[in-house]
Automatic annotation (TrEMBL):
Protein name, UniProt field: Nucleoside triphosphate pyrophosphohydrolase
NTP pyrophosphohydrolase MazG-like domain sequence ranges: 28-101, 169-226
Gene name for this UniProt entry: mazG
GO molecular function: nucleoside triphosphate diphosphatase activity
Keywords: Hydrolase
Residues covered by region (Disordered): 237-262
Pfam families (UniProt xref): MazG
Organism expressing this protein natively: Brevundimonas guildfordensis
Keyword flag Hydrolase: yes
SUPFAM superfamilies in alphabetical order: all-alpha NTP pyrophosphatases
EC number of the protein: 3.6.1.9
Gene3D superfamilies (UniProt xref): MazG-like
Length: 262
């Protein structure tokens, strides 16, 4: 019986065959597929957030297919195969876990092991001639996640505030600067100051050991949940939000908060 991964690879080869394959699949490139890869990763995260294991199985399959797709295009161009991707990942895991696969003694705590992990990654960057502290923080990451990673990397070499107190001070400073530019009507400078404000928020999340994307995703879900409560309450009277006003919807929002705490 054909192994499922081998079957998936065979299907990908067939889809990419210029003679009788799928025209859409044949014309794709790494650049055109990359957005789908990112989208599938988010859909995996969404299934996890909702605790839907059946959906997670499906979404992990979609994400796996992205890996197979990129690997097939690379193989066609003579760069690498899916097997090379798996082998490189296995080597990296062994290399980064010397306390499991090597002679190094196990670390006594999670933070100590995390620090060791970062040391190993730094050595890998040096071996790849990536000498800058921020060299390999991917540009394609979500902006909030990248901001947190940039400040974390800089913090490892001492460029960091000692506590959250200083971050809150900077947050207040950035809010004030944003207010000034809004009052001045300078939209471009206000955009810049808003970016600075979000960067500090991401830094604060990092100091609190919170993933900013996760925090914002949870806030989005909470907003949707509470707004749907407002819609449901108005629907009881045969109305929609457009037929309400801010005062009433604010009151219903508070009722949604109360109901969540009950």
């Amino acid at each position: 019986m054909t192994h499922p991964v081998d079957r998936l690879k065979d299907i990908m080869v067939r889809l990419r065959d210029p003679n009788g394959g799928c025209p859409w699949d044949v014309e794709q490139t790494f650049q055109t597929i990359a957005p789908y890869t990112i989208e599938e990763a988010y859909e995996v995260a969404d299934a996890i957030e909702r605790g839907d294991m059946d959906e997670l199985r499906v979404e992990l399959g979609d994400l796996l297919f992205q890996v197979v797709f990129h690997s097939r295009m690379a193989e066609e161009a003579g760069h690498f195969r899916l097997e090379d991707v798996a082998e490189a990942m296995a080597d990296k895991l062994v290399r980064r876990h010397p306390h499991v696969f090597g002679d190094e003694a196990a670390k006594p705590s999670g933070p100590a092991q995390k620090a060791r992990w970062e040391d190993i990654k730094a050595a890998e960057r040096k071996a790849k001639a990536q000498h800058g502290v921020l060299d390999d923080v991917p540009v394609g990451l979500p902006a909030l996640t990248r901001a947190a990673k940039l400040t974390k990397r800089a913090g490892r070499v001492g460029f960091d505030w000692p506590s959250t107190d200083e971050v809150f001070d900077k947050l207040a400073e950035e809010v004030q600067e944003l207010r000034v530019e809004i009052a001045a009507g300078d939209k471009e400078k206000a955009r810049e100051e808003l970016g600075d404000l979000l960067f500090v928020v991401a830094n604060l999340a990092r100091k609190l050991e919170v993933e900013p994307e996760d925090a914002l995703r949870a806030a989005n879900a909470k907003f949707v949940r509470r707004f749907e409560f407002i819609e449901a309450e108005l629907k009881k009277d045969g109305r929609t939000p457009e037929q309400s006003d801010l005062a009433e919807m604010d009151s219903l929002w508070d009722a949604a908060k109360t109901a969540e705490r009950a």
